[in-house]
Amino acid sequence: MDAVLDLLTLLVFAAVILAVLAARSLSSRNQRDKATVRHLEKLKGELDGQAHATTSQVSLDGILRDMQQAPFADLPVIGPRIARLWLGLSVLGWRESLLMRVALTGLLSLMGGVLLGRETPFPVLASLLLSLLFFSVLATLGYRSGLAKHLNELKQSLPEAIDAITRTARAGVPVSNAFALVAPNLAGPLAIEFALIDNWLRIGVPLRQAMQDSAQRIPLNEYRFFAVILIINQEAGGRLGETLDRLSATLRDRHELQLKIQAKTSEARASAKIVASLVPLALGYMYLNSPRDFHFLLGDPTGNSVLFYAFGSVALGLMLTHFMVRRVS
């Protein structure tokens, strides 16, 4: 029976590896095809003089449609959260590859759940529960990692966008019209956000409401400073160009300080990653080279106590390291 389970585990592991390789190959080929299509559309748009406007409008229409067609958005409690998650997936560009991501995450979770759950007294129930737990953890970590990368790109391109808004304001262009001029000339996700703001302004939404909604979609303190400055200037007046210049300089200084902090805390963060990988690596080594000890950890009460102690001590160490890094930053 153990030999059959080992063979089944090996087959599942091989299927996951083949699925990942096939998905990566398909994804890279799709990306090349999409890049070729975008390049051809850009060349065609340049011939017509409307390349940037067309690209921004297509992306903008897609986001507006996703905001209106979020599934289960009418539910009383979890509806707003689902709508926010749906919009986040659309902004990240994961809607097209969502099924592939879910399938790969499910295969990895199933493999981990079967590997650990089959050693427990209730293998079927434990495998199912562990698979659901692994799927939730992997999906949450993947979404937060993608969102953090997206926000980091926004943070890096924000000073350039503020400089563009400053130049248009000094040229005498109203703020309500500046987004339409700046959005086609920006690169990255901030161009789509500015195009979305311009769309709301065109249909009559006040600047205050448009910037407040935009600040909710982009949970960055730096972007909220920018939104507050535009709202105050629109309602109370003032020298917008000088204020935005100071904000842009402050954001660049904050970015340099953040890079210094990352350099100072690199050793602690590397130590935390090493400590976090010790337990799964040790369990994997025991599973391959010492199956009896691995079965003891999962199937014996004393082994369960040792395993819980190891997980608890590692979690406590990671928590202390996190607090230490937060104090420095």
UniProtKB/TrEMBL annotation:
Residues annotated as transmembrane: 6-26, 98-116, 122-143, 270-288, 308-325
Ranges where the Type II secretion system protein GspF domain occurs: 163-287
Membrane topology reported for the UniProt record: Multi-pass membrane protein
InterPro entries registered for this protein in UniProt: T2SS_GspF_dom, T2SS_GspF_sf
Main location: membrane
Key words of the record: Cell membrane, Membrane, Transmembrane, Transmembrane helix
Compartment list: Cell membrane
Transmembrane helix found in the keyword field: yes
Name by which UniProt lists this protein: Tight adherence protein B
Organism, as annotated: Pseudomonas cuatrocienegasensis
